[in-house]
Amino acid sequence: MSAGLAGKLKHYRISQKEHDRACELLGREPRESLKGLEWALFSALWSEHCSYKSSKIHLRKFAKTMNSTVVNAAGENAGVVDLGQGERIVFKMESHNHPSFIEPYQGAATGVGGILRDIFTMGARPIGSANYLCFGEPQAERMPALVDGVVRGIAGYGNSVGVPTVTGQTNFDPSYNKNILVNAMSLGLLRPGEKVALSAAKGPGNHVVYVGAKTGKDGIHGASMASESFDENSEAKKPNVQIGDPYFEKLLIESCLEVLQKDLVVSIQDMGAAGLTSSSFEMASKGEVGMRLHLDRVPVRDSSIQPEEILLSESQERMLLICEPKKLATLQQHFSRWGLDAVAIGEVIAERRVELWWKGEKLTDIDPHILVEKAPVYERPYSLWKDKNRAATPDELKTEPGNMNAWILSVLADVHGTNRQDVYRQYDQRVGLRTVRGADHDVAVLRLPDSQRGLSMGVGCRTHVMKLDAKLGGYDSVLYPILQMSVKGFSPVAITDCLNFGNPEKPEIMSEFVAAVEAITEVSMATNAPVVSGNVSFYNETLGENIVSTPAIGVIGLRADIKNIPQDMFQKNNSIVFRLAETHVFGKSAFPTFAESQGEKALLFGEINVPALARWAAGLKELSLQSGVLATQMVSRGGLALSLAKMCTAGLGFRSEGKINFFEISQEFFYQAIIEVDEAQVETFQKRAKELQLKVTQIGRVQPGSLKIGEWVDLPVTQIQQQYGSGLRGKIESLA
Amino acid sequence: MSKIGVVRFPGSNCDEDVCNFVRAKGFTAEYLWHLDQFTIADYEGLILPGGFSYGDYLRSGALSARSPVMKSVREFVSRGGPVLGICNGFQILAEAHLLPGALVQNEKRRFIDDWVELEFLGKAKFWAAEHPNRMIRLPIAHGDGRFYADADSLKKIEDQGQVWLKYRGNPNGSLRDIAGVLNEQRNVAGLMPHPERAIFDWMGGVDGWSFL
Amino acid sequence: MKIGVKIMPREVILDTQGRAVEQTLRLNKLPVESCRVGRFVELDISGAENQALQQADQIAKTLLHNPLIETYEIKKL
Q1: A160 touches chain C (CB under 8 A)
Q2: Is B97 a catalytic residue?
Q3: Do the Cβ atoms of A426 and B35 come within 8 Å?
Q4: Which residue among B19, B34, B87, B142 is the active-site one?
Q5: Which pLDDT does position B1 carry in this prediction?
Q6: Which of A431, A437, A455, A559 should be substituted to probe chain B, the one whose Cβ sees the most B Cβ atoms within 10 Å?
Q7: Measured between alpha carbons, how far is A208 from A13 in angstroms, rounded to an integer?
Q8: Chains A & B: contacts with CB separation below 8 Å
Q9: More confident residue, A586 or A713
């Protein structure tokens, strides 16, 4: 192989095999190579990020989860879910991990911008956003600045663009020290009568129109890793960080929704990863048509930009759309009113070829299928899943009793257990007048303006479970948020996934990936909540160290109305507290639970039973609608005692009744729920539970002043509140 | 009052919310685009909604205050017409010198989303003129909400009864805890909190309802 | 002595503020070709001139600007 070829393969990050495959598809002789712009095109579209080459064969399993509520799924960014009564939703989660590690504010901001575009490109108005964040230890290098930067970036972009950020999850674990995760989720609504927008290009002779911000060299040469390595004097070596402009995005949202509603657009796609390249080739490929594009017509910010740079640019806030010639002038008028460029840069042609022209010269001419449909598909080696960290007998899970008071207080103030106000108070919760419950609640709730039904939004994937057993963690990432919603009276509607994993070329990582995908598929089918969209982020690995596998999940639930949704904390003195359990796996589970705090190894016992849990979730949902149910909680990490403590943070305490052993309150159960019922309605509650075949156990009563659990816990409520109130700022000074 | 003009700038994002509020109260709401002048006589009131017009670039409200529509807004004000500025709208009116003072970055340099307690100290000619409560609760959501005016202006504002609302529990370092002000004629009012976000029980409070 | 640090967005980086201000200036029919917005930091550092300038440079390098997206210039005022 010539040095020239080797250099090009490295620069464009194409393997020898991929290169040969590309040449073959192009009909070249083996000794010939890719030419000119072709290098850039293959580099972009055959990258892991665009082609999903390592994950595709496994992601196909999600197709089994589809049901009749999903419409327009084939080939689109995200499936549309029909909620009935004319209301449809679109939602998706995407990762922006690497850019956020380099420049946290802009990385997080552009992550939010990117996912919003995926939503309104379908014709849906974004109505709520969420995020799933994983940081390293607070004392890790750069971590305080990363935490602060990411939160500010999400706030800066989300608030400005006018979409409320209503929920999220912020995790901390050493495995993310060198690879933070920033996953952004957004939900859009199509109201009765509003049309879904599609992305397949159609109609030879139609214009290909470029809309939005001018193209600059953003994202070109964006390969560099650590930001500390920058030499002030080497301008050329610095990555061209993509800057997000939420103001421009807002203009884009309004103008695009306007022209879509006025029927001026045939099809539309956002320019995301690999910018103009991916949008144009994907639109053509999907529509089985071709395009003739004149790159010199693309509006540019920097007149020195070259055609290859235009193709690869990741300038933000740009869309590509197809428009009939007779509607072009009107379309441009609309965009002009909003101050945006809308330039016809080419046309749709009948033959399935994409021609790229520059100042009268044709630079290349390729069948888009080669780049899109025929991208490589890899079957990375993996092994079948074997349960991890299992105890041989339940006895191995027992822990010696110890000072639970001290432990509860310390967990309520540490980064895992303390409140997240310092994060979510930076997010506008209420713009749009749809927010019923925001980020200060376990489950966010939005009100559908037409039917007045409730939509819940939540994210899942718990690091401490993933660390113990990736498959159980995969089940949990879907089950846990669904259960959280069930105890508020919501039924799960659909889910989205954002699969963050390490190096897929390592069989042990790939095994976790496959196991997680299978687990998610199983739960999705059992709960009738299809996987409608998703994203994969591989190679979250630095110097050979991989992150804990993190399949983040977004869940949307539906409720008939927004009346009497149970609260999260104890509400009324003397009310009765019940425990419900459907437990198949027990855990002396991971940090920071009691067992590990005593220096014992985390272990699990049991087999998850997905159908039983799905039935239980449905039962919980019905029971939670019962009048008299004042507050509910799913028992979370740390076990029953810690969850009861969290329910005391509104000011009312709890007193247990009857014998309660240490095992019961310190262990983790997959799963348990706590329900507070008004004293006067207990009988009807118990009757309803019986009808639903749910076993409920009375464990105590709400009382003022203190939390008393058997002989194990005796804490004043004020102390619990004080610890919980210390917040993340107590451990991460950059958030103060 | 029956027809209200909602002035819309590029980047305004509480414009639809304000229209929904206006309509919920049984009035007509119409958008007034920042590039266009409008006929003063067509409207009985104007609202400048919240949001991030021009992305809050340069200074919050600075670029909007120099939009063509402001010519009509000034004329409307000079004829005694009622104008309400909410959050970014307040910032725009201050930049346009239709209200006294300036809104600068929150003391703690962070965006704050929260509920706050407020007290009415002054009375506007139209906005919240018949509000049943003196102490109210409204949501805030802003990064540049700290009210500032020099010592002389502050004295004048207080002496002339132009302080409209004060925070009870100042969230952003506003001088004299000022959350909202009036112009001398009391037909122009501005406040940082969002009344349109507290108009139905399910929103968490209804103290915003009587602002219209 | 007073030292000024001028911080501007890197040429290749999108200047969102500059773009928005340009828009308003054009709306008001002002003949501005382009506009870039940065920030200016004034430092008062005691000691000999050379050392103070070096100190200012160090401060600018490590704190005042983000090398990924900004450039800076030091000037004695």
Answers
A1: no
A2: no
A3: no
A4: B87
A5: 63
A6: A431
A7: 29
A8: 79
A9: A713
What pLDDT sits at residue A373?
92
Q: What is the pLDDT averaged over residues C15-37?
A: 92
pLDDT for the residue numbered A1: 61
pLDDT higher than 50, residue A398: yes
Kindly list the distances between the CA atom of residue B70 and the CA atoms of A378, B46, B169, C27, in Å, as whole numbers in the listed order.
60, 12, 34, 13
Q: What's the number of domains chain C is made of?
A: 1
Given CB atoms, is B161 within the 8 Å cutoff of chain C?
no
Active site residue B131: no
C68/A230 Cβ within 8 A: yes
- Residue spans of the domains in chain B: they are 3-211
The chain C residue lying nearest B65, using CA atoms, is C24
Q: pLDDT at position A158, please?
A: 98
How many residues would you count in chain B? 212
Of C16, C23, C69, the CB nearest to A103: C69
CATH of domain B3-211: 3.40.50.880
User: The domain containing residue C8 runs over which residues?
Assistant: 2-76
Q: Is A431 close to B111, i.e. CB distance below 8 A? A: no
The pLDDT, as a whole number, for residue A73 is: 64
Q: Which residues of B touch C16 (CB under 8 A)?
A: 55, 57
- Which residue in this structure is represented by tokens 């630095």? A542
Helix H or strand E segment including A153: helix A143-161
Token pair, residue B201, equals 């029980």
Give the three-class secondary structure for A449: coil
C61 touches chain A (CB under 8 A): yes
Instruction: Kindly report the CATH number assigned to the domain that includes residue C25.
Output: 3.30.1280.10
Could you say which residues of chain B have pLDDT below 70?
A: 1
Q: Which residue in A has a C-alpha nearest to residue C34's C-alpha?
A: A301
| SS3 per residue for chain B | CCEEEEEECCCECCHHHHHHHHHHCCCEEEEEECCCCCCHHHCCEEEECCECHHHHCCCCCCCHHHCCHHHHHHHHHHCCCCEEEECHHHHHHHHCCCCCCEEECCCCCCCEEEEEEEEECCCCCCCCCCCCCCEEEEEEEECCCEEECCHHHHHHHHHCCCEEEEEECCCCCCHHHEEEEECCCCCEEEECCCHHHCCCHHHCCCCCHHHC
